[in-house]
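User: Continuing from earlier, I have the next pair ready.

Assistant: Great, send them over.

User: Here they are, in order.

Assistant: Folding the first of the pair now:
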Amino acid sequence: MKERNIATCIILTIVTLGIYGIYWMVVLNDETKAAAKDTQFVTGGVAFLLTLVTCGIYGIYWCYKMAELSAKAQENAGVAVKDNKIVYLLLALFGLSIVVYALMQNDLNEIARKNGNVA
């Protein structure tokens, strides 16, 4: 798991007109899934494709589901568990998925620092 600078990720997403955001979504999915030790949820690539095919509807569900995985990952890492399901869902519904990505990255950064897995 790699600690990422959230401001840099947001700037890269804006500068690349969302292309970096796609990469960021895939990486967030896969790293959170690995930290949660989950084998059931889809991979990042599949999550992106489902979001694309459903015109963003799956992306809203994805944000909600990622909050659950993030809480499980926090529990596994021994850090304070935050239940952000409603926050992520509301932000996604209002088209603020980039804020959800930033919050997810913050949680992953916290886990990486706790485990000493900072690359």
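And the other member of the pair:
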Amino acid sequence: MQRELIAVAGRLGVTIATAESLTAGLVASKLAQVPGASAVLRGGIVAYATDIKGSVLGLDQSMLEHVVSEPVAAAMAAGAARVLAADIGVATTGVAGPDPLDGQPPGTVWLAAYDARNGLIKTKLLEIEGNREQIRERSANEAIALVMELLSS
């Protein structure tokens, strides 16, 4: 899927930036594995700690009370696009486990893809079964798929 995304983004002439919490750079890493990614991938921000979501990505402090949420994922995606001067921002926030976070069980993940060119945003809630590695891997793959969906709309 990442090869397809890099190819499509390259053809469209759009750039991509990531803001990742539970995936901790896995989305950016998957994209960077593809030859030619440098023409598309602007960079990534690992906003694993809650305060980084505010200080680096610009999320309002009130949003940070519930970091595993659709509004936070959307704001992270928009923040990534803004901070890294990209056309598309993609974000992941959620619970990899083993313990619950923010009142959410492990496997609860919010994804967002934001198109800064037109303000379109797509979000997706995942409820993933599995261990930390499985949750993070599926979250990264689904985030890449969400960007493909955004570019297709």
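Worth noting for the second one:
The two ends are 17 Å apart (CA to CA). The chain has one domain: 2-152.
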